[in-house]
Design goal:
The chain is an alpha+beta fold and 375 residues long. The protein folds into 2 domains: 2-155, Phosphorylase Kinase, domain 1, CATH 3.30.200; 167-368, Transferase(Phosphotransferase) domain 1 (Transferase(Phosphotransferase), domain 1, Orthogonal Bundle), CATH 1.10.510.10. The protein contains 12 helices and 10 strands. The chain has helices at 22-29, 31-39, 61-70, 112-127, 167-184, 197-210, 216-240, 279-282, 289-303, 317-334, 340-344, 351-368, and strands at residues 2-5, 75-81, 88-94, 100-104, 144-146, 149-155, 246-247, 257-260, 263-266, 274-275. The chain starts with a strand and ends in a 7-residue tail after the last helix.
């Protein structure tokens, strides 16, 4: 983490009038008004490659504090850069209020409509007293722009990483994820992509091959193994049948859950999209087959207090894991022009990296041919 302190001599002082404006909350909760707004906004392609000069090169601490001040939040000069690669996220201390978290969105990844759609979802969850960290409504909206950057402001929330090896922790997680899904199934996303084979498997494989990311001596081997893996994913989906989809958290792993004495608090819905409910459950699992079976049973003990779980989705666990692996490699490749990525992931693209991915995909091919977990 990087800590900055700036001395700012701007004579103007601006105060926060209302972090949660009730009239704006009601407007955002009104789906018809929201759809009208979104229909007027263009949707940019998802997950496009970026030139580093168009991303975060100009986002220095002064710009961050100026952006916060543009929405009525006067910083005292202190800020910390938090651990985030896709977006840029800062904790900022204010002169006359508690610290806040500011998320600056990666240019060209999401459209305004897609971001607002996620904000509406998380604020709806928060209104239902589900412990999610939702964006603050400032100056009549949750999405702001300053000096070419779009950003949102969140309340600071504390907590520790959850212990998913504890049965009561998993049961607690299951209860709240079921409540999230119960609301998630009430509406559909209009401006966010679905989690599907085409977007998370076929397109990433084609991108990596087209952009020549594979070493020449491993290209054909990796391509063959990737195609076999995608065939395995398709078979898993066929065995599962026509399962329901709903609005998800999308990236529900331990790093996106803060744990307190009051239980879990869910953060970072940036990857929220539509997909099968099991997508938000399988990343809580670890260990061998027996361990994962016990863990999933603990999750469902809480989950099914609020929502029924379709056991056919168990066929999708290893398929979804495979899609995530393929998508992750393509994500790193697309972001390589961002200087933060070579510094953080120096091993990406090396001979050893792709050899490991080949072995990993072969293991997934075998796993997808096994019987699913039985709970």
């Amino acid at each position: 983490m990087l800590l900055f302190r700036l001395v700012r001599l701007d004579p103007f002082r601006r105060r926060v009038n209302a972090l949660y404006a009730p009239d704006v909350r009601r407007l955002l909760a009104n789906h018809c008004q929201f759809v009208s707004i979104c229909n007027s906004l263009a949707c940019a392609p998802y997950n496009v490659a970026m030139d580093a000069t168009l991303a975060y090169a100009a986002l220095d601490p002064d710009h961050v504090l100026d952006a916060l001040e543009s929405v009525g939040l006067r910083g005292d000069g202190r800020l910390i850069a938090l651990n985030s690669y896709e977006n840029r996220v800062y904790q900022i201390w204010l002169e006359d209020a508690a610290p806040v978290i500011a998320k600056f969105y990666r240019p060209a990844r999401w459209s305004d409509a897609a971001i607002l759609e996620e904000h509406v979802y998380t604020r709806t969850l928060a209104d239902a007293e589900i412990p999610v960290i939702a964006p603050l409504c400032l100056d009549g909206t949750t999405l702001h722009a300053h000096a070419g950057f779009r950003f949102a402001v969140y309340p600071k929330a504390g907590g520790r990483m959850p212990e998913f090896d504890q049965s009561d922790t998993l049961e607690w997680m299951g209860r709240f994820l079921a409540r999230i899904h119960a609301i998630g199934r009430l509406e559909t996303y209009r401006h966010r992509p679905s989690l599907d084979i085409a977007g998370f498997g076929e397109e990433p494989v084609a991108y990596l091959l087209d952009k020549q990311w594979l070493p020449a001596d491993l290209r054909d081997v990796w391509q063959g193994v990737a195609e076999q893996a995608l065939d395995g994913v398709r078979r898993c989906y066929q065995r599962a049948g026509n399962v329901a989809t709903l609005r998800l958290h999308g990236d529900c792993h331990a790093g996106n859950v803060l744990w307190t004495e009051d239980g879990p608090h869910f953060v970072d819905f940036d990857d929220s999209r539509s997909g099968p409910a099991v997508q938000d459950l399988w990343m809580l699992l670890s260990g061998d087959r027996a361990s994962m079976t016990r863990q999933f049973s603990d999750i469902l003990a809480g989950y099914e207090d609020f929502m029924e779980f379709d056991r056919r989705e168990l066929h999708l666990i290893e398929a979804l894991r495979t899609l995530r692996l393929l998508h992750y490699s393509a994500w790193l490749a697309r972001r390589w022009d961002d200087p933060a990525f070579p510094a953080a992931f120096p091993w990406f693209g090396t001979q050893h990296y792709w050899q490991d991915r080949i072995l990993e995909l072969r293991e997934q091919i075998a796993a997808m041919d096994e019987e699913p977990l039985w709970v």
